[in-house]
């Protein structure tokens, strides 16, 4: 077996472009698997051959997506529990089954560069030609929004404790020139929930990018409610793009309303581009002026004028300058009644989209069974492409069918 060559590009972290490295190497056969240990972000990866089940006992299924399944697992040597994410590789270009190797490699490479208490950790990585297995930190506390929706009341000060952790994680990644580009409630989880101070974990780096000086990055990805105007306008993206999403998340958290939500996705996008939002008194009657100022400094159309993550952390709403400011935050509460309604609608939409995605996958699989593989995958693609040409669908990311 070659010296784990195929997987070298994956684990090199920031050193060079993973896809370049992979191009020079050949991948092991399906039944040959390599593993890399979690390394310090700057270290070069070392590989040793191994099979995931030799090192980890696979347990129950935790979830699934069109990439494959996620299972709880236990490391045999230490007894520690993790989540094993099995990601199927796309068999041919253009297929909708599985993910692009390059895309997963980019996600892995980014995760390997990040080591922060509020960011999901990648512990181990196994890779073969057909599949990658990411051994991830096990997240047991569910989504932050679900946790909050179960509460009777929540003061702004309590909401800020969560927001501060999100900002710390985001400031850290931006400091390392990484932008997430898909910040939304589904990607903000709690490590555990039945503990005094639940810890935030930012997950899903599937759209994340390493930002390089002098390199312009543009993309039409994201989830309509949370994307910044520069995404819709196909203008250069930056870490400021994440800060817009944090502005939207904060607005929702305080009021249970989504600032740009229209009747349709197209209307939502047009509201975003126009910068059409307001603090309606009936939803924001309990909100402090400081909180509104915080949001206003994030929902700024011009990315260069938006507050950065580091600046947000010292905004007086997050870090009060006086006792009076601190007291105001503890007296103001978030609009729980409306927030619960928002969250229920959000969950309903997620389930609906999940069922639709499953139906589409079943149709694909049924069709695929009737033809040769190549023909089938192409055939199925054109079926999907009809949907994909819809302008709004273009803006949805691979998992947005579930988002
Ligand atoms: P994903 O598409 O990565 O969000 O994974 C699909 C589902 O698997 C999630 O909705 C979770 O239920 C579960 N899952 C993924 N990663 C983890 C993790 N690190 N810990 C616990 N459950 C996870």
From TrEMBL:
The gene coding this protein: LOC115639271
Residues annotated for ATP binding in this entry: 85
Enzymatic reactions: L-seryl-[protein] + ATP = O-phospho-L-seryl-[protein] + ADP + H(+); L-threonyl-[protein] + ATP = O-phospho-L-threonyl-[protein] + ADP + H(+)
Region (Disordered): 1-27
Superkingdom per UniProt: Eukaryota
Known EC number: 2.7.11.1
GO molecular-function term, one example from the UniProt record: protein serine/threonine kinase activity
Keywords, sorted A to Z: Apoptosis, ATP-binding, Kinase, Nucleotide-binding, Phosphoprotein, Serine/threonine-protein kinase, Transferase
Pfam families listed in its UniProt record: Pkinase (PF00069)
Cofactor names: Mg(2+)
Name this protein carries in UniProt: non-specific serine/threonine protein kinase
Domain Protein kinase: 56-318
GO biological process: apoptotic process; intracellular signal transduction; positive regulation of apoptotic process
GO cellular component: cytoplasm; nucleus
Bias kind Gly residues: ranges: 1-16
